[in-house]
Amino acid sequence: MNPLLIVILAIGLFPKDALCHPVKKRAEDKIIVLQNDEMEPTILDCDYEVEGNSTFVIVKWYRNNDSLYQWIFGSPPSAIPKFSNEIDITYESSTEPNKQYSSLALINPSINTTGNYKCVVQTSSNSYTILQRVQVIDIRNYTLELSHKTIHNETQLNCTVTNVYPKPTITIISNDQDVVKREPNLYEDEDGYFDGSAIVATYDSDDDPDAYQCVVSFDGYDKNLTTVATSASAGISHVDFNLWLFCFLYYFLSKLKVLI
């Protein structure tokens, strides 16, 4: 019988604690921003140690508990057929033979690449579990608009964003740094993308124009989508009105020949 098969069967028969010392770690979250150009693979590393010259290493990768990929030392790596177009199985992560194919190389990312990833490693003396979160950001085809309507001293603002992933947060900021934040109305379409809008009302106490900015942000991502709108207060300012009234009266009286 193949010696490697004997070892694998033995592992299945003995309690895990009798064979190894389990190690569990969490790696830093990774952000993937989708681009229109061809993207480089996103590499998820699996950190583990092999004692001595042991050749017993089994590496398995999962996403949200779905099996993606596995490599057994001495055999070529393989991807689960369902996910074969998402993983580059030829990627070599290390020159060390017992870590050569331990990393997961993600290719052709989409919003479905988002998830909780887990690397599980079994060596002759230890077991390792590495957890990592991957978040995809897709803003390639978004639209963002901030509209306003002013009636008397009230300005109604409506910020609308479409075709973004993941679920956004919408914040409206005025030029005096007052933040008006509302829970936006969000809708998820059949493809998993989000449309959202936030509506707020502000009150102008003077005749100066007010500038407003709508900020669309995503958890864990340090770049925002922004747009700006400027809204003058309702009506004509006192200065403009007096000038208009003077011109009108001058024209009217000149027609009546009151003015020489």
UniProtKB/TrEMBL annotation:
SUPFAM superfamilies (UniProt xref): Immunoglobulin (SSF48726)
Residue ranges of domain Ig-like in the record: 22-129
Record's signal peptide: 1-20
UniProt keyword annotation of Transit peptide present: no
Residues passing through the membrane, by range: none
Keywords of this entry: Signal
Keyword Signal: yes
InterPro entries for the chain: Ig-like_dom, Ig-like_dom_sf, Ig-like_fold, Ig_C1-set
Protein's name according to its UniProt entry: Ig-like domain-containing protein
Top-level taxonomy: Eukaryota, Metazoa, Ecdysozoa, Arthropoda, Hexapoda
